[in-house]
Amino acid sequence: MATISSFRKNLWPRRCLPSARELVRSIVVSSTTPLSTKDIYNLALKQKAIQLVPDASAPQHNVPKKENPTVVRGMTRQPSTRPPHPEHPVRSLQYLKRVVLPELVNSKKVEKFCAKRTLSQAEIDHRLQTVTKAARKEQAVLLAAPRNTWLWRMATPPPPPKPLPASTLSKSELLGLPRLTAADVGVGEDWSHLNKRRQRARKEKVERDLKWMWTLQAAKREAAREALQLSAPAS
Fold first, then answer.
1. pLDDT tens-digit profile of 46-94?
2. Does residue 22 fall inside a structural domain?
3. Which domain holds residue 150?
4. Residue 57 is assigned to a structural domain of this protein
5. Residue 163 lies in a domain
6. Listed residue (147, 92, 154) closest to 120, CA to CA
7. For residue 150, what are the β-bridge partners?
8. 10 and 107 housed in the same domain
9. How many domains does the chain contain in total?
10. pLDDT digits (tens, 9 = 90+) for 193-228
11. With helix as H, strand as E and coil as C, how does the chain read?
12. How many Å apart are CA 126 and CA 181, to the nearest integer?
């Protein structure tokens, strides 16, 4: 069985041909409404005027429509399944569904989504052909109701990234330093309970502490900035 599977895999390789990918992509792009898989397949088969670039990697198929089982080295080889349109880039509906469309999804060219859809009268009539006459009336009512349908459309581009909010951190905090303010050294405190001499002395002390705090913070910021520059990788 492994030999038979390998034979079929080589005969109809399950990879997306560039011509099939471009054809299906152009159909989805040119459509003003989402399309079902069958819609895309039918439109692909109707494409006559499009000039497809010959695909050198496409296999040359010369398989008869009917082939009898053969026995090779004691193993029975079943006839190869010939796709409906072997010479067309989209050779079958299964090839479109399982190979071409997933390839376009992976490359973010198209996307699949679910939507409510009502079948057309032609689609309803086609489905009723496989139903017995006794069940057609009931089945027709069910088919006329909207149903969930998987459709294809061009992939929606991702939204632009939201701008980051402006940082509320000070330069000292961005460099990993504690945020100090003038209030930390006593600016703005109530000294009314002190006499004038002590108030004057306290004011002079706060001014000295404030000046020293700014000097110390500036030195720490400069040291932290130099450390960041040394640790940054060279471009």
1. 885 344 444 455 555 444 455 566 666 666 665 556 788 888 899 999 9
2. yes
3. 2-47+70-154
4. no
5. no
6. 147
7. 114
8. yes
9. 2
10. 778 888 788 888 888 888 887 887 777 777 777 766
11. CHHHHHHHHHHCCCCCCHHHHHHHHHHHHHCCCCECHHHHHHHHHHCCCCCCCCCCCCCCCCCCCCCCCEEECCEEECCCCCCCCCCCCCCCHHHHHHHHHHHHHHCCCEEEEEEEECCCHHHHHHHHCCCCHHHHHHHHHHHHCCEEEEEEEECCCCCCCCCCCCCCCCHHHHCCCCCCCHHHHCCCCCCCCCCHHHHHHHHHHHHHHHHHHHHHHHHHHHHHHHHHHHHCCCC
12. 80
Distance CA 178, CA 172 (A): 6
What span, in angstroms and rounded, lies between the C-alpha atoms of 200 and 206?
Answer: 10
Does residue 100 belong to any structural domain of this protein? yes
166 residue type, one letter: A
Spatial separation of the C-alpha atoms in residues 205 and 197, rounded to whole Å: 12
